[in-house]
Every structure is written in structure tokens, then in C-alpha cells.
């Protein structure tokens, strides 16, 4: 599996379905407004499979996640919740499961493309009826 060069500084350009996504993951309204109205700068430092991923928000606030591909790491969500995750590399994309969503990141045409999709949870109970 190849490691793509992610290192760089990326300025927010556009989003799709931002409002729907943040509502579904339960982001507080103040964080929703902050994310919608600001120009986030994402800075990625990469040394082989070791990454430091920082999002800088206006006003001096930033969120940083450091991780090694294939190893469990302590992470934090956009909303500030701490959790543990294993970040993997699949087909040149960085892939991780956050508490309420699945996240991928890739470099495409010199741009950093991040996709977060909500994870559905289905629970089945054992049926008393067999066909």
C-alpha cells in the first residue's frame, strides 16, 4: 500500500452538505456557525507513516491529532470529544472511524479532499420465528 504525500498547508475552499452532516453528528450550534463562517487552515506534517494533522480556526483556536498509520491513537473530534481510533491507509486515502462518522482524506489535483459520512448502526434481536 503506497503512502501519498499529504504534507502541506491547505486553505478551506468549499463544502458540500455541511449543515446536514454537522446536525447528524450532533455538533453544538456555536461550533456549526464557527465552521460555516470561517476559513479553516489545515496543516499536515508527515514523516513516513507518522502524521500530525492540525486545523487552525480564526481567533487562535486549533485542533491537533497525531497518529501513525495502522496504530491506535488518541484523537479528538471537531466538537472536542476525545476517543481512540486506528487510522489506516487504503488506496492512497487516510481512513478513520470517528465516534459518529467515517472520515477519509486524500490528495487530488494538489487539493486536500476530506469526506465525512455518518455511520449507521443497525441492531437486530434474535428472531423467535424461523422460516
Automatic annotation (TrEMBL):
GO terms for cellular component: cytoplasm. InterPro entries: Calycin (IPR012674), Fatty_acid-bd (IPR000463), ILBP (IPR031259). Belongs to the calycin superfamily. Fatty-acid binding protein (FABP) family. This is FABP6 protein. The keyword Chaperone does not apply. Keywords: Cytoplasm, Lipid-binding, Transport. Residues 8-25 form the Cytosolic fatty-acid binding proteins domain. It comes from Ceyx cyanopectus. It is found in: Cytoplasm. One of its GO terms (molecular function) is lipid binding. It comes from the Eukaryota. Transmembrane segments: none annotated. Pfam families: Lipocalin_7. The keyword Transport applies.
Amino acid at each position: 500500500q503506497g503512502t501519498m504525500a499529504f504534507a502541506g498547508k491547505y486553505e478551506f475552499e468549499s463544502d458540500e452538505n455541511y449543515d446536514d452532516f454537522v446536525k447528524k453528528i450532533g455538533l453544538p450550534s456555536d461550533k456549526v456557525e464557527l465552521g460555516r463562517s470561517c476559513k479553516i487552515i489545515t496543516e499536515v506534517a508527515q514523516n513516513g507513516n507518522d502524521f500530525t494533522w492540525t486545523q487552525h480556526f480564526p481567533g487562535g483556536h486549533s485542533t491537533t491529532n497525531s497518529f501513525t498509520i495502522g496504530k491506535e491513537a488518541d484523537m479528538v473530534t471537531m466538537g472536542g470529544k476525545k476517543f481512540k481510533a486506528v487510522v489506516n491507509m487504503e488506496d492512497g486515502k487516510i481512513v478513520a472511524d470517528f465516534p459518529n462518522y467515517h472520515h477519509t482524506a486524500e490528495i487530488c489535483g494538489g487539493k486536500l479532499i476530506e469526506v465525512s459520512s455518518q455511520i449507521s448502526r443497525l441492531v437486530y434481536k434474535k428472531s423467535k420465528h424461523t422460516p
